[in-house]
Protein: Coproporphyrinogen III oxidase
Amino acid sequence: MAWDVVVVGGGVAGLVAARGLAAAGREVLLLESSPRVGGKLRTAEVAGLPVDVGAEAMLARRPEGLDLAAELGTEVLHPTAAASAVWSRGALRTLPRSLMGVPLDHDQLAASGVLSPEGLARASAEEPTEVDEDVSVGDLVGSRLGDEVVDRLVEPLLGGVYAGHARRISAAAAVPQLLAMARRGGLLDQAAGLPASTAPVFATVPGGMGRLPGLVVDRGGFEVRTSATVRALRRTDHGWSLTVGPTTHAETLEADALVLATPAAPTARLLADVVPTAAAELAAVETASVAVVTLAFRAQDVPDSLFDRSGFLVPPVEQRAIKAATFSFAKWAWVRDLDRDVVVLRTSLGRHGEEATLQAADEGLVRVSLADLAALAGITARPVDTHVQRWGGALPQYAVGHLDRVARIRAAVADLPGLAVCGAAYDGVGIPAVIGSARRAVASLTQAQ
Structure:
């Protein structure tokens, strides 16, 4: 059967691309290799409560996610006023306001105790350096403000977003505002002049982000096939031919246009014969694997002091197993309202190049999470239920020069009419950025008509 457009990949990017193309009047088929759509958005029951076990929020200061929610007719919810913390130098300390670790308020930074007196003095004596080309976030901040700011603020923040390491992640791709500031002059002076915003940083939808994929499908106007692995594709005189399904029962589908909304590695495999230049660039994009451990406790077993905290980050320099804990019961009112007698929280583990951490069995990840929660947050009770969600190769790493790599990929893809790529490997790993990437792919196909 021939389709106007086939979208390969049923994560956020693929779903949004399929919806946009259907809205433009195209007949669209979405193919997802796993049994379910949604990618890294997923809901599971823990202690009988439906909670997110993948991404649990989207940035509210970018418009794409909020716009999509409005288009789908769903309201958005914002976190409570609970404060974030960082475990540093033997205590949970309120996380000072920053731009990806660059302090926005020096007095607040000093009061937090996150840095040692020596680290604070070094940060205060900024040493401006010339920045001509792309550089890693860690090298940029370290050269200006010192290694301790990188180790205790930048690293945990970037670890939460990218599961990466500050001295390997591109400033131009991950924090372009920071790079632009560095080229203008001192970071601290400019940061101090940034206006404080009262707008919420994050948002979700009622019932959690895991509900979003279903809303897109229900209101999408496109056909979905799950457990449908695309094994090969070929350019034809009229578009594309796709080989789908197991080798013993392979099916051939024809399409006028094609959107690959798959991660970098499978996209590279599919493009190896048709766009080898793009395939080579995509194959060079490294990824990080992570795990989310969700734990449910009796409310009476959790220290009262934690109900005012949304969670905490853990810098790698602290040498703990977990890199963060999210107190979902305190961060999200909707989670707390599910059952007042049970509280749900989650830990996250895994950074780029540290896959050995995740080789433990599920029970092992639960055990180290409980040990760190006891040591860092005083939660010593046994949970009433647990859930471990592994996300293998889930987060692409934006190495120095990433923007140039993406430009080369898109230039090579553009040489073949009727082909577009989108997803977290290109323009940002957050949900709004991925939505923006999908909409860019839609525009490239619809404007070429």
Notes: The chain is about 35% helix and 25% strand. Residues 160 and 199 are 21 Å apart (CA to CA). Residues 147-162 form the longest helix (16 residues). The longest strand covers residues 287-298.
